[in-house]
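Page 37, continued from 36.
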């Protein structure tokens, strides 16, 4: 039996959050996005790569690890942003995230950020929007 945690959405609704399997190499919000992609019919290692090492990954200077790098649709990448780590831990993390967006843009890839609190509140909406190259993250203009 899988145990479940719960969260409350912005509208006050209670929703269950699945526990991340021990063999999943990512965070709980990344796991939710991964499962949402599967529900939408996308296939790992065919339509997208999870935890893709771009330009050598983190061990190479200038390298990145992208949460989701897509071949279908082409030119799309998604990073799931933990509010605590990515926004509340200072300007260095924010600068690194924005630099990653610029590096990928130079390669013709749009990096869409999904905030973890949005993923927890409504994964279907935010993942579908990200697949349409729409960014509702705290980095997006006007939010």
């Amino acid at each position: 039996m899988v145990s479940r945690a719960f969260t409350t959405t912005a509208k006050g609704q209670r929703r269950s959050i699945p526990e991340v399997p021990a063999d999943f190499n990512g965070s709980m919000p990344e796991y939710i996005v991964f499962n949402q992609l599967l529900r939408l019919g996308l296939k790992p290692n065919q339509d997208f790569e999870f935890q893709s090492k771009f330009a050598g990954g983190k061990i190479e200077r200038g390298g990145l690890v992208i949460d989701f790098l897509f071949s279908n649709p082409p030119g799309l990448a998604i990073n799931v942003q933990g509010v605590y780590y990515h926004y509340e831990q200072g300007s260095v993390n924010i600068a690194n995230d924005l630099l990653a967006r610029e590096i990928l843009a130079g390669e013709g890839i749009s990096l869409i950020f999904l905030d973890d609190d949005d993923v927890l509140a409504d994964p279907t909406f935010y993942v579908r929007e990200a697949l349409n190259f729409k960014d509702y993250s705290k980095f997006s203009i006007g939010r």
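The mean pLDDT is 79. Flag for discussion at group meeting. Residues 25-131 form a domain with the Endonuclease; Chain A fold (CATH 3.40.960.10).
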